[in-house]
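TICKET: design request
STATUS: open
ATTACHED STRUCTURE:
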């Protein structure tokens, strides 16, 4: 079995799909591993470390993926006017990556036409058996951490209260919007740095988690929020009545807030706008907002992906692009382990074969294309009956 890891060519992407440790384990499963030269450089993994782990370093992308049965990537294959990564893949190859299926339905069709089997890691079901493969959780964890560090860099003050002979400095007040994986890590990080932290989420079930980390839970209306969670644990789109109450509450809270970090996302839909222009206008000069949902349209009015906007009243609104890549070494380590656990599920080590079982919930919910067809029901396909 041949497995290939090409160098990421997505702008600004520093992660790679394997580490020396996972390469050793993949070889132990029966794979011959080929890695494009320089693939791990931005994640602080030089080629010689991959060689020491047993991989073969190949000079070009085309030579790396040639005849590969499995291709591991971070970002989707690039198919544009200048580059066509899919053209280099052999028919029947399995492509496993973050494929951004909700926004790249045209790519799904192209992967089907190319005859590759594709698996979108962000569609991993939220079940206990798949926790070790949950890419969204592993990467969001780091995004939550980094957002607090970036906010500290942009903020003109320190986080903790400091009592000195020259006077007392009050602690920074931070509000986290969305208490999922990224939000909870942001709460924990901000608390460790000494800030006073509050958090808002439409799911009342996360209140105890917020409080266990030392945060204060901002409540709107418990009755209205009782049904704020999907069966998969994600936040739901709320009613207009609830949103009005939420807006009134947050406007009052944010007027006293120094830093806001927003993380609210709804799978398959644009990010809900939670922090309005009116709320931003009521914040103090020097306040900082980091919108982790900027890649899906943003939770904050005025946020722009990849840009820092300074409002008329002196509030910085930052829309980070691929923030996880800014901690590429750790992000790679976690992502590579997620991929290893996923591929291990389908390997028969004794026979040296790879079979993706469509009856397995994990495979069924992540598989987008197979045998020249789109097979995922959410993206216009029909479920495959056999491998």
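STATUS: resolved
RESOLUTION: sequence designed for all positions
ATTACHED SEQUENCE:
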């Amino acid at each position: 079995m041949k497995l290939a890891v090409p160098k990421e060519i997505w702008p600004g992407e520093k992660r790679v799909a394997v580490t020396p440790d996972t390469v050793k384990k993949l070889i132990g499963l029966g794979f011959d591993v080929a890695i494009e030269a320089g693939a791990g450089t931005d994640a602080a993994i030089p080629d010689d470390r991959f060689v020491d782990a047993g991989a073969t370093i190949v000079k070009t992308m085309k030579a790396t993926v040639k005849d590969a049965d499995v291709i591991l990537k971070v970002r989707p294959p690039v198919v544009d006017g200048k580059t066509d990564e899919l053209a280099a893949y052999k028919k029947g190859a399995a492509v496993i990556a973050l494929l951004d299926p909700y926004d790249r339905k045209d790519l799904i069709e192209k992967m089907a036409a190319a005859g590759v089997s594709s698996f979108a890691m962000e569609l991993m079901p939220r079940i206990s058996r798949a926790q070790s493969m949950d890419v969204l959780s592993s990467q969001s964890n780091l995004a939550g951490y980094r957002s607090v560090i970036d906010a500290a860099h942009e903020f003109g003050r320190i986080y903790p209260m400091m009592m000195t002979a020259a006077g007392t400095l009050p602690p920074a007040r931070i509000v986290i919007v969305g208490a999922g994986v990224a939000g909870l890590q942001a709460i924990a990080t901000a608390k460790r740095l000494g800030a006073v932290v509050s958090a808002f989420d439409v799911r009342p079930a996360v209140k105890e988690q917020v409080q266990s980390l030392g945060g204060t839970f901002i409540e709107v209306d418990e009755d209205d929020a009782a049904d704020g969670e999907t069966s998969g644990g994600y936040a739901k789109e709320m009613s207009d009545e609830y949103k009005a109450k939420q807006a009134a509450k947050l406007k009052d809270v944010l007027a006293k807030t120094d830093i806001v970090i927003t993380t609210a996302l709804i799978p398959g839909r644009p990010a809900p706008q939670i922090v309005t222009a009116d709320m931003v206008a009521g914040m103090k000069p020097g306040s900082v907002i980091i919108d982790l949902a900027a890649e899906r349209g943003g939770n904050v009015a005025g946020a722009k992906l990849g840009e820092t906007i300074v409002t008329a009243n002196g509030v910085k609104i930052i829309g980070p692009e691929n923030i996880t890549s800014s901690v590429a070494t750790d992000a790679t380590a976690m992502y590579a382990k997620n991929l290893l656990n996923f591929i291990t599920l389908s390997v028969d080590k004794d026979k040296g074969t790879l079979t993706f079982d469509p009856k397995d919930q994990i495979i069924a919910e992540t598989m987008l294309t197979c045998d020249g067809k789109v097979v995922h029901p959410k993206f216009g396909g029909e479920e495959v009956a056999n491998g």
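CLOSING REMARK: The CA atoms of residues 144 and 322 lie 12 Å apart. The longest strand covers residues 32-36.
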